[in-house]
UniProtKB/TrEMBL annotation, chains A, B:
This is Response regulator. InterPro entries: CheY-like_superfamily, OmpR/PhoB-type_DNA-bd, Sig_transdc_resp-reg_receiver, WalR-like, WH-like_DNA-bd_sf. Keywords: DNA-binding, Phosphoprotein, Transcription, Transcription regulation, Two-component regulatory system. Residues 2-116 form the Response regulatory domain. The modification 4-aspartylphosphate is found at D51. One of its GO terms (biological process) is regulation of DNA-templated transcription. Residues 124-221 form the OmpR/PhoB-type domain. GO terms for cellular component: cytosol; protein-DNA complex. It comes from the Bacteria. One of its GO terms (molecular function) is transcription cis-regulatory region binding. Residues 124-221 bind DNA.
Length: 223, 223
DNA sequence: CAGCCTGTGACAGGTTAATGACAGGTTCAA
DNA sequence: TTGAACCTGTCATTAACCTGTCACAGGCTG
């Protein structure tokens, strides 16, 4: 899951990001409306955490703009003071949930997962390609019924590829799906590495990852 | 199993929660419709116990809303006075069962387990995996006929795993089934601990718990 | 043929999980 | 009420292994 945290209190933002990161949620942070928009222009997110008080505007203002622009990503509002009016406004503008500071980290995480679950539950279950099947809910990959052992990163990469079979995925695109901005120091070579590891595990599966030199990779079924 | 108890009589709620907790059912309580909705927005439950008389509305009203919203979780209605009309209304609204106060705690628990079992669509009482069998009603585990001694938490964890054999269950997911909000201070490490204890008891049983580093745990039968 | 892109083995570092020891709490019986 | 047995969860230590970098080989492109 990839999440954008818009919050100008650096301490709080960092604490939340670390905590969520530990739970396997890739978390990018923005300290202002402008920064948030910059991130949103470049990166797709599964959930957005939005503080109301921001140095260069309000979270509600940003939310209105985003919804007006057709963005449907679930938004969870955060704020120190939440009057009934604020709350009604926020929900009317298209916020999906809200949380009053100070909040319990565990509750925050639970709500994030609830939003994510709701979003994901609309998506289908198993992804198949030939005899290869990936079940995102069960986090399992089977090859003709036999289980394949995958690590977290391998699973994420394979899911990305299987959701776009036959289509060329650029190395940068795959990288974005695998890493958050905090992992900015990770080299693009890491993608190549995981492609290699996946190929090894998929060898003889009737599914192969083709290299499109200079363009990216494409997942194909034999035949 | 994770359960939501919606009941405004604090004494009763606490008594039931403690009793159920002792049986390995993680029980959150809500004293009002609003509180119940807050919990439901955040946490998935296996069963809901719903009192009819609540300070800010009625249980039937809440039930109607929940069903209208597409929630299919089994609901057991509780009430002091249950006229035939109430009963018919409740069942028509999508309640799965009802119980008239004062009720026997054992009967309550039996009905909860019945609803849960039905939800899990387990035909027989028993869940089997290889030579390992778990009887949720009797709360017993047998290995090739020989009884295995399990503690409350071990039993709950094993049941969670046995109901999802071959699926990777994240540590967080297991934690949710094992602990209620009241146990918020318990560390995730506790799950690891019980996995270790289960493994010890299951050694040589032909059933093993595989670790998927970074993803969770998976119960598998040898072979 | 030169230059760049990609593949891959090996390795170091860091994170995650396993586990033994321990303390507090609960249960149960006397 | 006391004590014993046992269940629970924390902590700290150790082990496992996932991750990503590096380096170099090989191949594609122009």
């Amino acid at each position: 899951m990839r999440l954008l945290l818009v919050e100008d209190t650096a301490d709080l933002a960092e604490a939340v990001a670390i905590r969520l990161g530990r739970s396997g949620i890739a978390c990018d942070t923005a300290g202002s409306v402008a920064e948030a928009q910059a991130h949103l222009a470049v990166q797709a997110y599964d959930v957005i955490l939005l503080d109301i008080d921001l140095p260069d505007g309000t979270g509600t203002g940003l939310l209105r703009k985003l919804r007006a622009g057709g963005l449907r990503t679930p938004v969870l509002m955060l704020t120190a003071l939440f009057s009934v009016d604020d709350r009604v406004t926020a929900l009317n503008l298209g916020a999906d949930d809200y949380l009053v500071k100070p909040f319990d980290q565990r509750e925050l995480e639970a709500r994030i997962r609830a939003l994510y679950r709701r979003e994901q539950s609309q998506k289908g279950e198993e992804i198949r390609l030939g005899v290869l099947a990936l079940d995102p809910a069960a986090q399992t990959v089977t090859l003709d019924g036999a289980a394949l052992q995958m690590t977290r990163r391998e699973m994420t990469l394979l899911e990305l590829l299987m959701r776009n079979p036959g289509r060329v995925m650029s190395k940068e695109r795959l990288f974005e799906g695998l890493y958050s901005f905090d992992d900015a120091d990770v080299g693009l070579n890491a993608v190549e590495l995981y492609i290699a590891r996946l190929r090894k595990k998929l060898s003889g599966s009737g599914v192969r990852i083709e290299t499109q030199r200079g363009l990216g990779y494409r997942l194909d079924a034999d035949g």
